[in-house]
Automatic annotation (TrEMBL):
Domain of life assignment: Archaea
Any Pfam family hit: AP_endonuc_2
Family annotation (InterPro entries): Xyl_isomerase-like_sf (IPR036237), Xyl_isomerase-like_TIM-brl (IPR013022)
Residues annotated as domain Xylose isomerase-like TIM barrel: 53-267
The protein, known as: TIM barrel protein
Source organism of the structure: Methanoculleus palmolei
SUPFAM superfamilies (alphabetical): Xylose isomerase-like (SSF51658)
Amino acid sequence: MPLPDYNLGCTVRLDDPETLAFLSKLYEEGAIQHIQVQAVPLPRPLFQEHLDRVAAAGIPSIVHAPHHSHGVNPCAPAAYDDRPRGEITAYIEEAVSQTFEAADVLGAETIVLHAGRYKPGGRAETVEGFAGFLDRYNDPRFTLENLPAVHAGRPFLGNTAEELAALADDRITRFCLDFPHLACTANYRRLSFTEELKRFEDLSVTLHHLSNMRRGSITDEHLELDHPDGGLDLARIFSRLRRYPAVPTTLEYKRNATAIYTRQVRVFTRLREEYAGE
């Protein structure tokens, strides 16, 4: 039986023309089928310049909304942020506006969203905070991503399928399944990765995120799929990918992206064949 064709893509920051040019070549060669554009808040002239460049590349695009690393933390805007509250609010307003504009210009049907992080002990309040964010900014293209339970000791909101469904509250109907995030959560909470993965069958998953993480780790590091210390259950993941080949799978790497993507696209193809019978 022939292997299914996958909709494979790679991530690029909006303001990274070098990686964009490289990924354009991969797209022209047929090695990838889409890009995920990480929207980052930029001064207006720079935003327009970079957005025009991405649009000119003509590659089918997914947009990833800015998250806490970019100063946008939907569930608790002021957590771990010393800026005045009014400045934070105005910054988020502009960042979300740019994100929606980028999705409009690129014809993206998906905007990946992180619920955000919060201070220990404040989870109930931040659930309300995320609901308030959706009251102000909800968009039918929002696709809610599962996050690792913690990073650098700071808790994140929306770690399991059940938690995502509760946060979405029928206002978000699409979900992004990030495999290493789920594995980190399972390790931190001492849950079964296999069982937690099965629970995503109950959600409308319209995007997969894929990289690797260390064996037994609770920390998401965006490691290569063939990293010698990799601990992700690739057999189970490729079993899911094989059952949902039409759902886009985006590789996510942040450092030395062009060098990493050169290898990882080939590694993905090899693993696809290796786990074909699993």
